[in-house]
Amino acid sequence: MPPGEFVVGRSSACHLALDDALVSRRHAAIHVQPDGVFVDDLGSRNGVLVNGERIPGRRKIVHLDRVTIGSHELVLVEIPDRPLLEAACETCGASVTMDMAFCQKCGHLLHKGSPTLAGMTLEIPAVRPDSMQTAKHDALRLDGVRVDGARPPSASGVGSEESTGRALLAGIADKALALGRFDEAERVLGKSLHEILARAKTGSVPPPSRIAEATKYALRLAEGTKRTAWLDWVFELHEAAGRLLGADDIERVHELVRKLRYTGAGPVRRYVVAMRARAEGFSASERFLLSRLEGIERMVSA
Question: Rounded to an integer, what distance in angstroms lies between the CA atom of residue 117 and that of residue 64?
């Protein structure tokens, strides 16, 4: 958001127009000022809530505060303004900047700890006991992704901060991809995707649903950034996991190999060799998928 006033309401004249019967024509204003970010209720019929609490007028908001307007919730994400200092990757020596989560050349993880977006921490704040009474306000909503303010239950009934953070990152990445901001989406997703591959190569293979989700993002990044390293990533992950790519993903890979003029014969050849070694136990449909992969290998090696 740029410095100044940002008006939210139902009117098309607002900076953000919400098609919501619970939202007034000019419902709220968000002010970005040198001393902070503030939200004002502009005399709306249904009020403005910050972290589940209705505000009487103006309220200062900070990183990850939730602003409820009608049936929508907005999350304030603060990105520190700092210079992108250059450094060298400790693995390959390539030039990197401090906003990178991983090396663009070799994929080495550059930062440890919590997931970040251009240096921004994404720690999920605990929900105060009083706000738990307002159930409809105890969740973050970001472009269709619901992330509970409290830790979501896992299969064992124990909360999982990792899954909460992952869902929030996915929401931010989906928004960035939808807006064509592929470099931003890559910063959000890159570290997580490379960690998935690293764990798979050490025998800690993620579940099929996680592989499918990660593959979807990697292929979208390959197309958007024009970086064929994401195609390498797809082949390497599926080789490490011992899994055939699905029919839809193979079609997508075939399209991107041609579109991006992919020349990564090594990764695709190793993957096809690994799948051939398993072919004896394949069904007829799986053997057909393998033949499609062999066609991609021939095209890349030509």
Answer: 13
Tokens 């993002």 locate to: 217
19: tokens are: 């098609």
> Do 289 and 181 reside in the same domain of the chain?
yes
In a domain, 95, yes or no: no
With respect to residue 99, please indicate whether it lies within any of the assigned structural domains: no
Query: What's the pTM?
Result: 0.53
Q: Is residue 275 part of a domain?
A: yes
**3-state class (DSSP) for residue 280:** helix
- Dig out the tokens for 192 from the structure: 């997580």
If you write DSSP's letter for every residue of 62-126 in order, what string do you get? -TT-EEEETTEEEE----------EEE-TTT--EEETT-SB-TTT--B---SS-EETTEE-PPPP
- Whose tokens are 């200062």? That residue is 60
Residue of 112, 80, 263, 254 lying closest to 191 (CA atoms): 112
- Six-digit token pair at 183? 């470099």
Distance separating alpha carbons of residues 102 and 191, to the nearest angstrom = 6
Containing domain of residue 12, as a range?
4-76
- Tell me 123's DSSP state: P
CA 213 to chain centroid, in Å, comes to 11
* Greatest alpha-carbon span in the chain: 70
CATH of the domain at 37: 2.60.200.20
- Domains in the chain: how many in total? 2
DSSP state of 131: G
Residue ending a domain, choose from 54, 76, 98: 76
Query: Is residue 128 one of the residues assigned to a domain?
Result: no
pLDDT digits (tens, 9 = 90+) for 237-251: 999 999 999 999 999
pLDDT in tens, 82-135: 444 456 676 777 776 655 556 666 666 554 433 334 444 333 344 343 433 333
157 Cβ contact partners less than 8 Å away, ≥ 6 residues apart:
none
Beta bridge partners of 37: 32, 61
Single residue among 55, 76, 97 that ends a domain in this structure: 76
The backbone torsions φ and ψ at residue 74, rounded to the nearest 5 degrees and listed phi first, read -110, 140
Q: What is the Cα–Cα distance from 231 to 301, expressed in whole angstroms?
A: 15
